[in-house]
Amino acid sequence: YVEYVLDHSWLKNIFSRCCGEKLKGRVPLSEMLTRASCSPFSYMEQRTEASIESTNGFSLRKLLSTPREKRRSLFSGILFFIHPSAQPQGDPNNDMRYVILASGGTVSANPSVASIAILPEAQMTVIKDWGKALKCPKEPKCIFIVPGDLFRSVLQQLVPTASTVSGPPEASLLPPTLSSGVKRSRA
Fold it and tell me: Which superkingdom is the protein from (predicted)?
């Protein structure tokens, strides 16, 4: 868990102090790191239209001031289903799974119990691309999001409350039913 975001000058300061102390044979690096004050080296980035904070609508300072216990319980009680094509989720460093678990959520391979389903893209217009996500519940309503929404919700410390994924044009509800994507011919 992140406690501080520091400017690169902090590391330069540690190395210069460490090298000087080591030459004198006094303090090991691990001890120096625990004694080092972080506050003079807080990272400050000019907030621009393209900065990560602007792009994702969050404040790094506000995020880091959120108590660790609260960050760890953001998704408490929420079951997630991750579509196999949604990225990034390559083993062994499954980023989405790790983010969900670290924020108190649970990942299920069973879409019929999911509260939130993560799909690979926002425009899911072909029924077969939904795969197992077709089994997500309509009642209580499952929310469909894309990976960027998951990461953004963690940065903003807000649980997703609305779907950002759209289905086939003929489907009025999500998940779509198999019949909503099949054109019927006249007999």
Answer: Eukaryota
